[in-house]
Amino acid sequence: MAVATHARVRRTFASFDTRCALGIGLVALALRLAFVLAYGRTQTLNLGGGVGFPFSDTFFYSWVGSALSMGDGFTFVGHTTAHWPPGYPFLLAGVYWLFGADTANALIANAVLGALTVPLVYLIGLRALGRPAAIFAAAALAVMPGQILIADVALAETFYTFELVGFLALAVSLDRRPRTFVALGIVAGLAALTRGEGFLFPLIVLGLWSARGGMRRALRDTAIVSVVMLLTVAPWTIRNAIVVHGFVPVATNASATLWSGHNPRADGGPVYHSPAELAALSKLSEVDASAKVRDDAINWAVHHPLRELELIPLQLKALAKGDSEVVWTWINATGARPLGKTETAIVTRVADAASYALIAALLITVVVFGRSLWRVPAMRAVLVFLAAAVPLYGFIYYGNVRYRLPLEPFMLLVVSRWALALRTEPRAGALARV
């Protein structure tokens, strides 16, 4: 058996596709490591030196990750909390425990995760559309400026992107059987514990499986995945009930995110509470403050339907902003400027050009090849998930570049359809692999 296993491993690594995927992944790793080592915002933990975090997200993630690594539990400045999802802090806890509680280590972990996402995109592209599309999608993701930039910040997006792409890679690779449903449900649950959008992952398997075996069977199997996902999240929900004395499925920040898109000052992008509003909320418990913010958002939306309609295009516009927003909002935010004036000018222009080109290419590809892509199960799953993002960020919450960045691998997979169109004659069945 050992000989057979060794032979199988040798055949796998002898495969052109394996070597190509790993080679592109190594290029992605080199680019990300080079950037975070040269321009990483590593001073964010140097609070004593007067340099603070640009936004509370990064402060929270790194602080809680450090607390977990030291055995202090899921606590923020000494207090137990349920304010942000636990997935990324637990990842950082493992990184900090192994290598030390240094933000540089968090950014290096991001670089590794971002690079690991690239071969997974290659796998999906290969199974769905063939080798040319796989090479295009993986290579484009490896050099996509926004993906490199977001890895330079201690935010959960890079980890969530890895989970999102990994989920689809598993779904297209594993046989459709009960153990697969369990595995996918667990991954979806872990993703939901990283970002709330993980609760939408069952839509991916619904899109994938609806093309095979009929919709009734697809709904049944998707329901099983959903149940396993909820069971995976349940222990954290129970923990929250014990700690903060209320029903909080994952984190209380979901209410603040909802309010940010539905309030008197809403403009389509992120809007934050004023100091006076925060002072009033601080007098309430975490659960009560979350409930008040959520109720305020819902009440405002219900009583201002016309303004809600006006906000939809503004939210979509904010979602489509260029990837340079990562630089202005996080990397070169108040407290430190890792990127100098010249580097900033170059990086922001290239990032915006690449992200706007990708959005335009996505829309054109859907118009030109939408029907043929829909007939490919894996691409149907991609399109379903991308479509779900439109009402999620264009109506329910608000538009933000960091919400779109995890979708870029899926966007590139759709655009990779041109790799087939530009060939002289795609071989029969190239669009019906998975």
Describe what is shown at a glance.
Helix content is 71%, strand content 1%. By secondary structure, it is an all-alpha fold. The longest helix is centred in the C-terminal third of the chain and has 34 residues, at 341-374.
How much is the average pLDDT?
Answer: 90
What is the spatial order of strands in the main beta sheet? 1-2
Q: What structural category do the secondary elements indicate? A: mainly alpha
Number of strands: 2
Order of helices and strands: HHHEEHHHHHHHHHHHHHHHHHH
Q: List the total number of helices.
A: 21
Tertiary shape: globular
The profile of the biggest β sheet is: 2 strands, antiparallel
Helix content: over 70%
Q: For the terminal residues, how far apart are their CA atoms?
A: 30 Å
Regions with little confidence, pLDDT below 50 for 5+ residues = 45-55, 424-429
Taking all Cα atoms into account, the compactness measure Rg is 22 Å
Describe the model.
This protein is mostly helical and 434 residues long. Helices cover 71% and strands 1% of the residues. The protein is built from 21 helices and two strands. The protein has helices spanning 2-14, 16-39, 56-69, 87-99, 103-129, 131-143, 145-150, 157-173, 178-192, 202-209, 215-244, 253-261, 275-281, 286-303, 305-319, 325-331, 341-374, 377-396, 401-404, 408-415, 417-421; strands at residues 75-76, 79-80. It has a two-stranded antiparallel sheet. It is globular and about 65 Å long. The two termini are 30 Å apart. The model is unreliable at 45-55 and 424-429 (pLDDT under 50).
